[in-house]
Sequence to fold (128 residues):
Amino acid sequence: MSLEIQIKRDLDLARQHIATVELTGSLDTATAPELERGLMPLIDAQLRHLVFDLAGLKFISSAGLRVFGIARKRMNESGGQLAFVNMQPQIEEVFEIIKALPGLDVFRNMAEMDSYLSARQLRDRDED
Fold:
């Protein structure tokens, strides 16, 4: 199975430089390099938030998990945040097996993530 990658960028300051990466299909040894090549320019662009929308992701292998790990490390190094939305049960099970969920920002849907980011933005303003 192939992987379809759609990248949506929102550079509106209120949304804090967010890119959403929608994945449809299988993220495996054959498709992971393509995703990694597409992500590096996004991460290098100093994004504050990189969101993976996994609603259409049907399968993930260790190669796909590796790409997420690299993205998380690079985002942390640049002061950004990685998040996942719409994680399907079979994908969530893989994350649970490798104990990757603790410490990850996983949201049921985009509305839940938007609510979290809005609250965080207000909190950050109050601290300044």
